[in-house]
Amino acid sequence: MPVAADEINQGLLKNISQVPLEIPTTGTAVLGSKESMYEYQSWLNECANRLVAYSNTILALFGMKPMEWSAPQVSSVPTVIPTAKVTPLPVKTVGPIREDPRLTTIGTIVGGSGASSKIITIPSGYWELWYTADPLNVGGQDSHSASGSNSAVFPAMSITITDMKYGNVLDTVEPPGGLDATLWQRSGDPRPWIQKYYEGGNDYQFTINARNVKSYWIEVRVPNPGTPVQTPGQIGNEVPSESPTKVMTNSNPAQNYNPPNQKPQRELT
Hints:
Elements: H1 5-17, H2 34-61, E1 103-111, E2 114-122, E3 127-135, E4 156-163, E5 168-173, H3 181-187, E6 193-197, E7 202-211, E8 213-223, E9 246-248, H4 253-256, E10 267-268
Antiparallel strand pairs: 1-8, 2-7, 3-6, 3-8, 4-5, 4-7, 6-9, 9-10
């Protein structure tokens, strides 16, 4: 008794459905590096090999001739030979930020690459944000970098500060000049960075987005009791101004000090 055509088709479909096709695993090199480009090309070739093997298995079920394909040769990662020997200045790794006798730390956030957030209650009307980060690769830069380095790895970090009471974004902070260790080796290490705020008394959410950094360290500091606070237009007065103001500063507390008859270095309203 002849076998019905639909039974043959059902058997063929069943055999086809049982043909496996697995996706190869990806590499572990840092995204954007030369090593990752080499791994990506090898991964594409392996994907193509598996697709060809899968297709040939299907073709064999139909009694057809298999296709032929060979992967292109992937050249090894070239070795970069420096043209000149440079003795860099030491670049410190991230860690606990130096203390300031005027201030007390009320909140600390420590992490690495990725996104994280933390809510910190700031009781005073004046506070300072101290932060530092350790880039993943020396020579990396982001869009703010001024060194002209050619690394394919671009470290970056931003801190978004949100007033939880009103839902307003108070500020988005990024390291001035970017996370460029090559520039720091030539001009000196600027860390930690400091910013001052004349607004408080609420809960604030700190959302950190970091890319290609080994680690970062962030501290929220408030003045110790009795410490004079200089506000825009109010020198030596501990009461903050009615209009919240952010003051940009550099990383040297001695340079950030304003004599009694001088205004803060730079004010952003």
